[in-house]
Design goal:
Largest sheet: 7 strands, mixed
Low-confidence stretches: 7-17, 33-40
Mean pLDDT: 86
Shape: globular
Strand order of the largest sheet: 3-2-1-4-5-7-6
CATH superfamily: Vaccinia Virus protein VP39
CATH architecture: 3-Layer(aba) Sandwich
Strand content: 15-25%
Helix content: 25-40%
Number of helices: 8
Distance between the termini: 75 Å
């Protein structure tokens, strides 16, 4: 006996609200907008843990992420944050924005469709004065001329005195943008990630 129209309608409703897999979303986004995504694979758990390890999470009240994609950092960051905190994730891909809003229904997480270059305005619009930590996976090597410099300068401006800009990249191009602005840039390579990525921890003030 074929399913009734009501059963078919309910099945269609369930499919429409189902959150797609992160890998499927990421691959689709890479194929549609390869210049906006730094890698064909989402960040590994090893990369996430290593990137976040140096941060004093007890002192973080606001964290910003540029280019969160399908959110490999979202839950690990949320797990480290206190309850009275704000996590602003900014992505230029509307598909990723819709996905993250459905996949991470945490009131501390605010997913914004926009440009990292507008971070100061985005924070001001939400009543936030700045951030203690900014995380970025956007591919600086493929950005239009001048945009990378704008993002690095805007990030430095909104960071608190003890704040840090955490960047992971395939290319080393971002180092040329960080050095003139940040007095302390620590580097490493995550060999266990596919592909291996360059890691940068740029601090607004030099370490003691």
């Amino acid at each position: 006996m074929p399913p009734s129209p009501i059963a078919l309608a309910r099945a269609a409703a369930r499919r429409s609200t189902r959150v797609p897999s992160p890998r499927a979303m990421f691959l689709n986004g890479f194929l549609r907008h390869p210049g906006m995504i730094g890698s064909i694979m989402p960040s590994s758990r090893h990369l996430v843990e290593r990137m976040l390890a140096p941060v004093d999470w007890a002192a973080v009240k606001t964290v910003v992420e540029y280019g969160p994609g399908v959110g490999p950092f979202c839950q690990p960051v949320l797990d480290r944050l206190g309850q009275d905190t704000t996590y602003v994730a900014i992505d230029a891909n509307p598909d990723f924005v819709r996905y993250l809003r459905r996949a991470f229904p945490d009131p501390r997480l605010q997913v914004v469709h926009g440009s990292a270059a507008d971070v100061a305005t985005i924070l001001t619009d939400r009543g936030l004065e700045g951030a203690e930590c900014v995380l970025s996976g956007i591919p600086f090597s493929t950005l239009p001329p001048g945009i990378g410099e704008r993002i690095v300068k805007a990030t430095h401006d909104i960071l608190s005195p003890k704040g840090a800009f955490l960047v992971y990249q395939v290319s080393s191009r971002v180092r040329q943008l960080l050095d003139p602005v940040f007095p302390d840039v620590e580097t490493a390579i995550a060999w266990r990630n596919l592909p291996p990525l360059r890691l940068y921890w740029a601090r607004k003030e030099p370490r003691a």
